[in-house]
Design a protein that fits this description.
Blueprint lengths: L1 E7 L3 H7 L4 H22 L2 E10 L7 H24 L3 E5 L7 H14 L6 E8 L1 H14 L9 H6 L10 E4 L18 E3 L10 H13 L9
Parallel strand pairs: 1-2, 1-5, 2-4, 3-4, 5-6
The structure holds farnesyl diphosphate.
The site of farnesyl diphosphate has 18 residues, from helix 1, helix 2, strand 2 and helix 3.
């Protein structure tokens, strides 16, 4: 069983381009695919935690129209899924730098977190306005502000100061054939098994996901030890 699965969502733009569609159409298709994956993982109870890289701090550098479209898409989607995820016992968390987001989207994320906070099924952690180095720096500042003494700082305490206190990532998928982490959960992914399918995210069906999970099962995880 995979405790913590992470997906770097990638390839929406190329998917759209291949079809002569706008990038926005690609993101819309990506959102639909994501919805399907979340529902499937929740119903089949295949994982306990799912982290999703949907918008990095670097993504703010994209053309203004695309950033605006994505923010609107996220906001509508977060509102739409509120009741559905509450009823499906899915708990939503967010990781990221809220100071870079506008008030409306921060409100939508906080509302979704509040509405689902008592759920104890699948935990979905959205990394939005997220950068791993920024997260580590923010955690360090919080530790200093709390005047924690150096001898009390260990890995477990440090994890506690990250945006969310989550278990290590077991399996990390990045769609679209790109083979890099792009500043995604560097602390949490230290021992993750990595998987880079060529599939563009809007084509990443449940069947593709199951294929990935099968691949994970065949991996020999040694955590640096000899077995
Ligand atoms: C990556 O494709 C996708 C993004 C940066 C956008 C975010 C993800 C979604 C729209 C999925 C839905 C999420 C929610 C919460 C509704 P890309 O644009 O980098 O693709 P490219 O590399 O082919 O250009």
């Amino acid at each position: 069983m995979i405790n913590h699965l992470a997906i770097i969502v990638d390839g929406n733009g190329r998917w759209a381009k291949n079809r002569g569609l706008s990038r926005s159409e690609g993101h819309k298709a990506g959102a639909q695919r994501l919805d399907e994956i979340i529902s499937y993982l929740s119903e089949k109870k295949l994982v306990n935690y799912l982290s999703l890289y949907v918008f990095s701090t670097e993504n703010f550098e994209r053309p203004k129209e695309e950033v605006n479209y994505l923010m609107q898409l996220f906001m509508n989607w977060f509102k739409k899924v509120q009741k559905i995820y509450k009823d499906k016992n899915i708990k939503i968390l967010f990781s990221g730098d809220k100071t870079l987001l506008n008030k409306q989207i921060v409100n939508a994320t906080e509302e979704l977190e509040t509405k689902t906070k008592n759920n104890d099924g699948l935990v979905v952690n959205f990394c939005l306005s997220y950068g791993s180095r920024r997260e580590i720096v923010a955690a360090t500042k919080k530790i200093i502000n709390d005047q924690v003494s150096p001898e009390d700082i260990d890995e477990s305490l440090f994890s506690h100061y990250l945006y969310q206190d989550l278990p290590d990532i077991d399996f990390l998928i990045r769609t679209s054939g790109e083979m890099r982490l792009s500043n995604f959960m560097l602390w949490q992914a230290s021992y993750a098994e990595l998987y880079f399918p060529q599939t563009l995210f809007p084509d990443f069906t449940v069947a593709e996901l199951n294929k990935a999970i099968e691949e994970y099962k065949s991996r020999d995880r040694r955590f640096g030890k000899v077995k």
